[in-house]
Amino acid sequence: MLDKTAATRIFIDAQALLEGHFKLTSGRHSNQYMQCAQVLQYPHYTEQLAADLAEKFRNDNIELVVGPAMGGIIVAYEVGRQLKVPAIFTERQDSKMVLRRGFEIKPGQRVLVVEDVVTTGGSVLEVIDIVREQGGNVAGVAVLVDRSGGQVNFGVKQEAVLVMNIQSWEADDCPLCKENKGPAIKPGSRS
User: Fold this and answer.
1) Model-level pTM?
2) Which of 14, 22, 142, 173 has the fewest CB within 10 Å, making it most exposed?
3) Which CATH number is 49-166's, of 3.40.50.2020, 3.10.580.10, 3.30.950.10, 3.40.50.300?
């Protein structure tokens, strides 16, 4: 298992923790952004981070791992590989999260939902809904970074490699906007 210092070092070494003025997927603004794609480009870091998550669910009889595109694809693959179970992903079609590409979740199947970064948990909640609609049993949620400081609760076992309390604000209350620190940029995968 990785301790917080070792996990933080991985994100810093990969230059994944950015400073500036950002617009998050949730619409909120922040002075920090965790760009997990910077970490996931390095297989040795991905393997270490996923091993930490896989170990936390090793005894939970996981039968399938699923993550939302884009951020959850690599995480799902590597956690699935380490748990020796299939890994699939959901994706957006007409702004709605769906299963495509012939992927399926069998009724009663124990599913681990994974994601790279959680702020409000919106994408994870959409994936949880899909799993349940398909008759699957959500056995847990695993994320690389919980930037809510542990405030998001999915109602199932949840684990994170790194829990951070990164500040964010509603766009109308953003101190960076009020101080004219330039426009908020959106470095993530959804625009």
Assistant:
1) 0.86
2) 173
3) 3.40.50.2020
